Amino acid sequence: MTQKTMRAAVIDRTGGPDVLHVAEVPTPLPITSEVLVKVTAAGVNPIDAKTRSGRGVSAAIRNYPAILGGEFSGVVAASPYATHPLPVGTPVYGMMSVPRTDGSYAEYVAAPSLSVTRRPRNLSAIEAAGVPLAALTAWGALEQAQLTPGSRVLIHAAAGGVGHFAVQFAAHAGVEVIATASARNADWLRSLGASTVIDYMTTRFEDEVAGVDAVIDLIGNVHDNTGRRSLGTLKPNGIIVNVPTGSWAELDDDARAAGVRATQYKVSPDARVLDQITDLIEAGHVTVNIDTVYPLEQAAAAHVKIEGGHTRGKIVLEVSAE
User: Where are the alpha helices (DSSP H) in 109-250?
Assistant: First the structure.
């Protein structure tokens, strides 16, 4: 029988990382087709920190304390019905729609069946927690670009959580990948499939890149005009896909003036796509790199880390033993 309360890292208001603290809260009650998952680990993403700070999707928080965290791995604790494809005891991973629902910085989540699936057999629970939201974001952003084998794509912040998946998905599809990252990550990104890695600290990427079919923009226009500078690297009618929430208010106008196409992208928690990603992981075509693991009690430290940037892959919270 599932316990009535659980430990969770919560916020009682928006603010700095120190507003995150562990509290005892009611265990979620699954309804209709939801699966109750005992969470082993939760991925930490930039949108979590933005929301905690009062930006991101914080305007949609209706009640406090609020639980952040958009992705998780764990074990099914309760299924909707006896013949459900995810029976009790199944190792799973998936994504939450925070803050419409409580997030994954908690011992349990009640996740819609269409947002959770069996986790890759060759990943640990810690590794799996770093995949769903970031990988689905990379997948969807690349889909918007409609790239084909031989196309060329520029990926910004390529060493980050979303970026390192985008590099691998694009390279696996036969797309030529040009990545921006720090010099320390260059060899690693080449091992993931990047053809060219540009050190953004020493080189202006627009001086080296021209005529690409698409830009996967994981920075926006909030630092050094990265977004606007990217428009000149595109071929006529090329497309820039902007991902970070609230990072480029003038995107459409700037792209129109440059003669290129633009779109933002918001990720969908789709287990059917996650199944395809699972297949790539199990086949050895895609890997996840875990930068740092923190215990749930150090969620604030995890937010300080992700807000500092320069992570290689993902940051994960270890919530409980499996």
Answer: 125-129, 132-145, 161-172, 186-192, 205-208, 226-230
> Which regions of 122-260 does DSSP assign to beta strands (E)?
152-155, 176-181, 196-199, 212-217, 234-242
* Cα angle, residue 92 at apex, residues 9 and 128 outer, rounded to 5°: 70
What are 186-211's pLDDT values in tens digits?
999 999 999 999 999 999 999 999 99
Is the full-model pTM beyond 0.90? yes
Task: Give the length of the chain.
Answer: 322
Summarize pLDDT for 111-160 with one digit per residue, the tens: 999 999 999 999 999 999 999 999 999 999 999 999 999 999 999 999 99
Q: What domains are there in the chain, each with its CATH number?
A: 5-131+288-318 (3.90.180.10), 134-264 (3.40.50.720)
Q: Residue 245 pLDDT > 90, yes or no?
A: no
Q: Which residues contact 88 (CB under 8 A, 6 or more apart)?
A: 76, 77, 78, 79
> Beta strands 212-217 and 234-242: pairing type?
parallel
Separation CA 35–CA 28 (nearest Å): 10
Q: How far apart are CA 103 and CA 245, in angstroms?
A: 18
**H or E element, residue 53:** helix 46-53
**3-state DSSP assignment of residue 253:** helix
Q: Are strands 91-95 and 116-118 parallel, antiparallel or unpaired?
A: antiparallel
pLDDT at 310: 87
Spatial distance between the Cα atoms of 288 and 169, rounded to a whole number of angstroms: 12
What letter would DSSP give residue 54? T
CB 7 within 8 A of CB 107: yes
Helix (H) or strand (E) holding 77: strand 71-78
Q: Rounded to the nearest 5°, which phi and psi values hold at 239?
A: -130, 140
**Beta-carbon contacts of residue 207 (< 8 Å; ≥ 6 apart):** none
Note whether 216 and 224 are within 8 A (CB): no
